[in-house]
Design brief:
By secondary structure, the protein is α+β, with helices and mostly antiparallel strands. It is built from 5 helices and 5 strands, in the order ααβααβββαβ. β2 and β3 form a beta hairpin.
Length: 164
């Protein structure tokens, strides 16, 4: 624990990282998201040459019933600065993690992952919206370069959707 976290605890504030280790942007969440999507929603190809960044997160559940609806509206209306303001987190409950996938084409996709600290609880993609043109450039400009991670996890062939 850092000195800053110890001081925050001493005055009644919790440390930023929950003791459980369940926090937004974990490798397990990114892997689950990539597995669920199976291919880039923008170009339809595998994720080689693509990057991902955690953009926002919010607590869900009984106390926040309207939050999911607000979240979906903000994504659907492409209000990226408003989306950036979603910063709540419940280390013991259900949350939505909002990721941006930067496609090799230069466009992007916004994916909302439902997540929970319970290992047995299913994590799934609640919504995915493709973003192109000026909207994509505006969104991508809000994400600092250090926030991007290469997508190195490739879903097994059995997870990929086969054409019908």
């Amino acid at each position: 624990m850092s000195f800053f976290d110890a001081v925050k605890r001493a005055i009644g504030h919790s440390a930023e990282k929950p003791a459980s280790g369940f926090r937004p942007g974990g490798d397990e969440a990114v892997e689950r998201l990539v597995r669920e999507l199976a291919a880039c929603p923008v170009c339809g190809k595998e994720f080689q040459g693509h990057t991902i960044a955690l953009f926002a997160h919010t607590a869900l559940g009984e106390k926040n019933r309207k939050r999911a609806s607000e979240l979906f509206d903000v994504v659907d209306e492409r209000r990226w600065r408003d989306l950036q303001r979603f910063r709540e987190w419940d280390a013991h409950g259900a949350n939505a993690e909002i990721y941006v996938v930067r496609c090799a084409t230069g466009d992007a996709a916004v994916a909302i992952l439902h997540s929970s600290p319970a290992a047995a609880e299913f994590k799934n993609v609640e919504r995915c919206a493709c973003v192109g043109g000026d909207s994509a450039r505006g969104l991508l400009a809000l994400i600092p370069p250090h926030a991007w991670k290469p997508i190195t996890f490739a879903p097994p062939a059995a997870d990929r959707m086969l054409p019908t």
